[in-house]
């Protein structure tokens, strides 16, 4: 850990003075909030009959649903993504002016590699575990529950990858229409919700995965272009969004919880709703109001180094934190259910949270040590021919389908002999190969005929 800290300190000292450190801090903070939220909300316990129940804190304690206004911070990640993607895409366009080819391919690969390549080890591990547990005779419902819980984080990557892939189009729309591009997406989200809630149009609400998340991504472009500069602009956005969010949830049809609650008729996150979009606008107004103070805080070497360290392992922490949770739960169950006989939400349950969190962290640390060093190790192939746009499109589509299906229907199969849906596991790998990513591309390329042979 000391070695990681020293390397992070070196990187922190090399950061250019013009870098907006608040962007990096918010990225790290949002992922940490998600981790803590997941560890808190998932509340398994052993009932009076000795059976393990997958308790959900928001369903057990309705008042805790208000906490999701602080812990559902994926909007901040998309806001930061818009800022970062806007900066990097403009830099890539400047390179294009010098006549470089493969501009989009190179840019897209550099933006996506840290998102996608860390997914491969966790997918392979849980595919192997699912097969092993199935062959060992474990009930398939339990296999599915474990794999679903551990792989919950991958849904976000499918959406974020698609939003990132659309950056050239959305950025062009921002430059041409400004905030009107955001309000058009917000109007689309309102229309989709109306068709869903009032007209009972099925499946159309899935369009809001684009309207809501691209809309918040547009606010990142606005941040980068200085739209929120001034003492009152960001606070005004925060106050207005807060008022609208209260109206939508307290007096309107939307639930207070910004994530799904078992048994609820409406969920604000799967797919996202106008309420979640409003939460994103409110959070954007808040964090941009705090930006001057935050940037001053990050002049502290220790805080900035910790931010750099967290960003260097961010995808590892995000992808493996629920695996660590499952591991701790399995050990607790194998030890006779120690600690699992406490009903969630009681005073004793809250009192023991620090102990459980310490165990989750201890279980996560070896995973960080093993996998975090590889977050930047798989890059796009350099010096080769430009990947055609059709291959990029197919690659993105396959990865998104694979990750989305992993979250939606699980890699665990209730019927197959192996115990897994092999096609779900395979899609992200095949998609990465189409994009020309790292070891997969080299594996395929090395098995192609040598130059000059028929192909």
Mean residue pLDDT: 85
Number of strands: 2
Strand content: under 5%
The tally of helices reads 22
Alpha carbon gap, first and last residue: 48 Å
Helix content: 55-70%
The coarse overall form would be globular
How does the helix and strand content classify structurally? mainly alpha
Biggest beta sheet summary: 2 strands, antiparallel
In short, what is this structure?
67% of the residues lie in helices and 1% in strands. The protein is mainly alpha-helical and 455 residues long. It has one domain (2-445).
Features:
mainly alpha, globular, 455 residues, disordered C terminus
Set out the fold topology.
Layout: H1 2-14, H2 21-41, E1 45-46, E2 52-53, H3 57-60, H4 68-71, H5 74-96, H6 103-116, H7 119-135, H8 140-150, H9 154-165, H10 167-177, H11 179-197, H12 208-224, H13 233-251, H14 274-289, H15 291-297, H16 301-312, H17 314-334, H18 347-351, H19 353-371, H20 389-408, H21 422-435, H22 438-445
Helix pairs in contact: 1-16, 2-5, 2-16, 2-17, 5-6, 5-12, 5-14, 6-9, 7-8, 7-21, 9-12, 9-20, 10-11, 11-12, 12-14, 13-14, 17-19, 20-21, 21-22
């Amino acid at each position: 850990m000391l070695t990681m800290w020293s390397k992070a300190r070196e990187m922190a000292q090399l950061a250019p003075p013009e870098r907006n450190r608040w962007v990096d801090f918010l990225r790290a903070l949002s992922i940490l909030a998600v981790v803590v939220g997941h560890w808190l909300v998932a509340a398994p316990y052993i009932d009076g009959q000795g059976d393990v129940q997958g308790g959900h804190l928001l369903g057990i304690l309705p008042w805790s649903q208000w906490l999701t206004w602080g812990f559902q911070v994926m909007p901040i990640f998309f806001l930061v993504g818009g800022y970062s993607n806007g900066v990097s895409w403009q830099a890539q366009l400047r390179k294009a002016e010098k006549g470089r080819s493969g501009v989009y391919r190179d840019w897209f690969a550099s933006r996506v590699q840290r998102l996608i390549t860390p997914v491969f080890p966790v997918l392979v591990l849980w595919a192997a575990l699912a097969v092993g547990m199935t062959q060992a005779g474990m009930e398939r419902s339990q296999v599915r529950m474990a794999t679903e819980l551990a792989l919950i984080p991958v849904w976000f990557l499918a959406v974020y990858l698609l939003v990132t892939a659309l950056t050239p189009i959305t950025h062009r729309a921002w430059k041409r229409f400004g905030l009107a591009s955001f309000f058009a997406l917000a109007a689309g989200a309102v229309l989709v919700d109306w068709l869903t809630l009032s007209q009972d149009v099925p499946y159309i609400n899935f369009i809001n995965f684009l309207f809501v998340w691209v809309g918040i991504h547009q606010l990142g472009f606005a941040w980068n272009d200085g739209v929120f500069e001034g003492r009152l602009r960001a606070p005004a956005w925060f106050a207005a969004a807060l008022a609208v969010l209260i109206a939508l949830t307290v007096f309107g049809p939307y639930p207070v919880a910004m994530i799904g609650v078992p048994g609820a008729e409406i969920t604000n996150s799967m797919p996202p709703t106008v309420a979640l979009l409003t939460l994103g606008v409110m959070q954007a107004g808040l964090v941009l109001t705090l930006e001057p103070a935050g940037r001053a805080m990050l002049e502290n070497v220790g805080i900035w180094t910790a931010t750099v360290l967290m960003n260097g392992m961010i995808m590892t922490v995000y992808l493996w934190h629920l695996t660590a949770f499952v591991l701790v739960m399995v050990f607790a169950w194998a030890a006779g259910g120690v600690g699992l006989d406490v009903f969630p939400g009681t005073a004793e349950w809250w009192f023991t949270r620090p102990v459980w969190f310490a165990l989750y962290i201890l279980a996560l640390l070896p995973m960080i040590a093993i996998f975090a060093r590889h977050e930047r190790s798989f890059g796009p192939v350099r010096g080769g021919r430009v990947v055609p746009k059709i291959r990029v499109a197919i690659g993105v589509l396959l990865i998104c389908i694979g990750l989305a299906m992993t979250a939606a229907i699980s890699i665990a199969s209730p019927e197959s002999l192996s115990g897994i849906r092999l096609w779900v596991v395979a899609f992200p790998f095949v998609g990465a190969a189409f994009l020309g990513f790292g070891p997969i591309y080299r594996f395929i390329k090395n098995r192609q005929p040598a130059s000059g042979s028929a192909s």
